[in-house]
Design goal:
Pfam families: Aminotran_1_2, GntR
Helix content: 25-40%
Protein name: Aminotransferase class I/II-fold pyridoxal phosphate-dependent enzyme
Strand order of the largest sheet: 4-11-10-9-8-5-6-7
Number of strands: 15
Low-confidence stretches: none
Shape: globular
GO molecular function: DNA binding; DNA-binding transcription factor activity; pyridoxal phosphate binding; transaminase activity
Number of domains: 3
CATH topology of the largest domain: Aspartate Aminotransferase, domain 2
Family: In the C-terminal section; belongs to the class-I pyridoxal-phosphate-dependent aminotransferase family.
Mean pLDDT: 90
Keywords: Aminotransferase, DNA-binding, Pyridoxal phosphate, Transcription, Transcription regulation, Transferase
Length: about 450
């Protein structure tokens, strides 16, 4: 379209004009905006004014700058999400869900939840839940005296609120690469700039964190155990090295997302040192009590807790006290927690058994921690996924979890813990066959 539709003499006016044209459909996704010089000359403004307008539009997610390709109206890019693929006739082995048979039945606890109604203005955290959560979190924070607790509607809700109070659009956030899908969505939909930090078998890498800090990140999100999708957990040595790097940045917001805490068999090692001033440890109940239990506990420093509290005001956005009471009833029931412990053993045992099957068939695989396996197929994973679909399986290609690490595109994330032994054997054979059919002649010789 002609650039004559754009009006304004200040950066804000020009940006508002473009946004109105996009909203009305007169500018379409992918359409090029006028070059800076041409638009500045027509509007009779300084070129820096147009540059500032385009920067505002970029921060709002309205446009994207493509270098020599100019500035174009942003296209709404679909982001991958966790969970089942709906309306598929294939057996889904990439969903990342816990086993529904291992999620505790809440019916008995629900019948005991009678109590007085909660009214506007009351404390946002149930006293019994707060007492239990303090015992849960205190051993794993560097400064228990400074610990403050907040309850949110799940771990993603906690991270969204933590980032919103600390950042503005286009601020940089250090994310593990490959990364949990919800982490990618949270950062991108918030308008923040993800900076990739590679992950190896010991978790977030030291050099990767240093490089992210050099790029001016304002927050770091780290998964200390059962990193999704790789299954890596921080070792004590790696955590100490990361703490040493962060020691020079005490006011950087550091978020530890310990999502698998009740199911993991790995010890917790923190990257948050005693001198760090802005931090949060987030633990959700969704992996062991079920995804519909939208509740997470955040332990944080007092200032971060105060800012979170401003976004969790009584009467508007508190987490239901009925849900809080149900959660505390379940986690304080010895029978329930014994079942949770058995579930953790089940996930570990089934993942290890499947990894052994794959390795025996010529597809080396190590079982990390978590609900899924991260399988190296020694080449692009998409063709492997397509071959598995023809065999009745729906797997997840690693490129969905990638920020910049192209090696992840050679991986599959497989969720196999619900498979019976015969089905697990068939899937392992089908994966090996699909990998073999996809490999180049040289790779086939190497594998054989």
């Amino acid at each position: 379209m002609s650039d004559t539709a754009i009006t304004g003499t200040s950066a804000a006016e020009i940006a508002d004009s473009v946004r109105a044209l996009v909203d009305s459909g007169r500018f379409s996704p992918g359409e090029a905006l006028p070059p800076v010089r041409a638009l500045a000359d027509r509007l009779g403004v300084n070129r820096n004014t147009v540059v500032a307008a385009y920067r505002l539009l970029g921060q709002a997610g309205t446009v994207e700058t493509l270098g020599r390709g100019g500035t174009r109206v942003a296209s709404p890019a679909p982001l991958a999400v966790e969970g089942y693929a709906q309306d598929s006739v294939l057996r889904d082995v990439g969903d990342g869900n816990p086993d529904p048979a291992l999620i505790p039945d809440p019916s008995r606890a629900l019948t005991a939840l009678a109590g007085r109604p909660i009214l506007y203005g009351e404390p946002v955290i149930d006293p019994d839940l707060e007492r239990w959560a303090r015992d849960w979190m205190t051993p794993d924070v560097a400064d228990p005296a400074a610990l403050r607790l907040t309850v949110t509607g799940g771990a993603v809700d906690a991270m969204e609120r933590l980032l919103a109070h600390a950042l503005v659009r286009d601020d940089a956030v250090a994310l593990e690469d490959p990364c949990f899908l919800s982490g990618i969505r949270t950062v991108r939909l918030g308008g923040y700039r993800p900076v990739a930090v590679p992950v190896d078998e010991e978790g977030m890498t030291v050099e990767g964190l240093r490089a992210a800090l050099a790029q001016g990140v304002r927050a770091v999100i780290c998964t200390p155990r059962a990193q999704n999708p790789t299954g890596a957990s921080l070792t004590a040595e790696r955590a100490a090295q990361l703490r040493a790097v962060l020691a020079d940045h005490p006011y950087l917001l550091v978020i530890a997302d310990d999502h698998f805490s009740m199911l993991t068999r790995q010890p917790y090692h923190s990257i948050i040192g005693p001198e760090h001033r802005r931090w949060a440890l987030v633990r959700s109940v969704s992996k062991f009590l079920g995804p519909d239990m939208c509740l997470a506990v955040t332990a944080s420093d007092p200032e971060t807790a105060d800012r979170l509290a401003m976004r969790l005001s009584p009467g508007s956005t508190w987490v239901s006290h009925l849900l809080q009471r149900l959660a505390v009833a379940l986690v304080t029931d010895p029978a329930v927690m014994a079942a949770v412990d058995r579930a953790g053993e089940h996930y570990l045992r089934r993942n290890r058994a499947f990894a052994a099957r794959l390795t025996a068939l010529g597809v080396p695989c190590d079982a990390g921690d978590g609900l899924s396996l991260w399988v190296d197929v020694d080449g692009p994973a998409r063709p492997v996924v397509e071959r598995l679909m023809r065999r009745g399986w729906l797997a997840r290609a690693g490129d969905e979890f990638v920020l910049v690490d192209e090696r992840a595109a050679h991986r599959l994330r497989l969720t196999v813990h619900t498979l019976s032994d015969p089905h697990a054997e068939r899937l392992a054979a089908d994966v090996a066959a699909a990998v073999g059919a996809t490999a180049s002649p040289r790779e086939k010789v190497t594998r054989s």
